[in-house]
Amino acid sequence: MQISQNWIDIAYLIAAVLFVLGIKGLTKPKTAVRGNMLAGAGMAVACVVTLLHRDIVSYEVIIAGILVGGIIGVLLAKKVQMTAMPQLVALLNGFGGGASFSVAAAEFFRGGHPDTVGIIATGAAVLIGAVTFTGSFVAFAKLQELIDGKPMGFPGMKAANAVLLLGSIVAIAYLVSNPGSPTVFWGLAIAAALLGILLVMPIGGADMPVVIALLNSYSGVAASAAGFVMGNSALIITGSLVGASGLILTQIMCKAMNRSLTNVLFGVMAEGGETIDQDEVYAGKIKSTSADEVAMLLETAQRVVIVPGFGLAMAQAQHAVRELADTLEANGVEVEYAIHPVAGRMPGHMNVLLAEAEVSYDKLKDMDTINPTFEQTDVAIVLGANDVTNPMAREDKGSPIYGMPILNVDKAKTVVVVKRSLSAGFAGLPNPLFAKDNTLMLFGDGKGAVVDITAALKEG
Amino acid sequence: MDFVAELTLFVLAIFLGVELITKVPPTLHTPLMSGSNAISGITLVGALIAAGSDAGLLVKVLGFIAVVLATINVIGGFMVTNRMLAMFKRK
């Protein structure tokens, strides 16, 4: 059966509307599951009518592809650990870029007679698609610790990137006047693939959330470009929605680290005006405490704020933390969680990890909401978070992190920092919070410490 | 569709996207990313046409790769998003 292009386009419109309603559902936790279903329904509509497109003459390859992709997709979605979600999203970004690349390449070799716009769109889809594909795999490898997470580079890297980008643009321009050259096409593909690798290599582990968000955006833009190639409204609309989404998340991440996107992509962290000596900050001012002492503090507390970082998830301590919170709440204590935008390894990661431990989502407070409440907080417990609590970001103009928005935990009456040692965080800086008069250090493994506090509380 | 109409769609959809996404709370940013991965699997539509056409082996191979990758995005993306969202509960 075949249907006219008009009906297909109307079905695409319906799909696009369902995607928009789906994303709208994601604006509230209550409606989010239904939103995701709506978007899924939109995808089903778009795919089914496409199967009736007049250009489709055989179904064997389609069925084989859907089977292979479907099985891999189900396995990935079922098996992935919540701590590994950034890796999965990096992979999916890469697949999205790869799919757009392949679609544009297939359209190129189908050998129609594309106009200038069509060729430029093909070039854009190939360039952005390939960059997203290889760049995402480097990001995946760094997050999965298959390769070193530290920034990697070589002298002349920026020049090499510039040459690759320029070469790609020249190749696209050449294809506009000679649309039939497969050599130039593959040259473009290889240059773009290399560019993707070189762009992500020099970016360090702490900046990965930004990179994932940015690659998310690229995968959308690549889909949009593929839409221009095929004259397909569904791809254009959906691709730009995703492109916008990734871009906004990128911006939020950059703002939360007080860095510009160019700085993340091409620069290193700003050098501090003065080197800060760790001993000078800490000497004689560190007060160590025990689980029993912390439990005693918590017994008289009325409001406790827990400040989790990725260290908490690494120690698999989410469930232990929830149990501590349950015990406190049973004693009539108000417990909330302070989530910094860059806590975890991707936007919103910490929220998912705590949701997995069955922490109620209305207790997860973002930075702007929780910061004014620290002054009325009796005990703030910092678990596996470091740089995002560093008061130097607020007070020390010479500091490299000056201006970065932080959680003002030091305003709480007492701060308990659970940490293995006084070692520095990603930023490599000492944290004067640890030396404050109202700060107690509880040295040890995060999970063990939390379990001990809970036990002491229950006994007391 | 002519180019100007396509460009109009593109630009308006970006504005719509910005308006929508800024309203998504930080709590849901991870599901938003995996969900938008799933939605960007819409490339599957183009992949199906390439894989089902009769334009020679190379096009079929590229079409097959595109179908596989886009299907992973669609199925994997929607399922993992659903799995995460189901964990967001209020006590």
Could you explain the architecture of this structure?
The complex is a heterodimer of chains A (460) and B (91). Chain A is elongated, with a radius of gyration of 26 Å. In chain A, strands 3-2-1-4-5-6 form a six-stranded parallel β-sheet. The model of chain A is unreliable at 269-273 (pLDDT under 50). Chain A has 460 residues and is an alpha/beta fold. In chain A, helix 15 (349-356) links the parallel strand 2 and strand 3 (364-366). Chain A has helices spanning 5-25, 29-50, 60-79, 85-109, 116-143, 157-177, 182-200, 208-230, 233-256, 261-266, 278-282, 291-299, 310-314, 318-330, 349-356, 367-370, 392-395, 446-459, and strands at residues 303-308, 334-339, 364-366, 379-383, 414-419, 439-443. Chain A is built from 18 helices and six strands. Chain B has 91 residues and is mostly helical. Helix content of chain B is 77%, strand content 0%. In chain B, helix 2 packs antiparallel against helix 4 (57-85) and helix 3 (43-52) packs antiparallel against helix 4 (57-85). Chain B: Its main location: membrane. Chain B: It is found in: Cell inner membrane. Chain B: It catalyses: NAD(+) + NADPH + H(+)(in) = NADH + NADP(+) + H(+)(out). Chain B: This is proton-translocating NAD(P)(+) transhydrogenase.
Greatest chain-chain contact? A-B, 113 and 81 residues
What value does the average pLDDT of chain B take?
A: 94
- What number is the mean pLDDT of chain A? 91
The percentage helix of chain A is 55-70%
**Major sheet: arrangement of strands of chain A:** 3-2-1-4-5-6
Instruction: Please state the oligomeric state of the protein chains shown.
Output: heterodimer
Number of strand elements of chain A: 6
> Topology as H/E string of chain B?
HHHH
The rounded Rg of chain A comes to 26 Å
Number of helices of chain A: 18
Radius of gyration of chain B: 17 Å
Number of strands of chain B: 0
> Unreliable runs of chain A, pLDDT <50, ≥5 residues?
269-273
SS-based structural class of chain A? alpha/beta
| Uncertain stretches of 5 or more adjacent residues of chain B | none
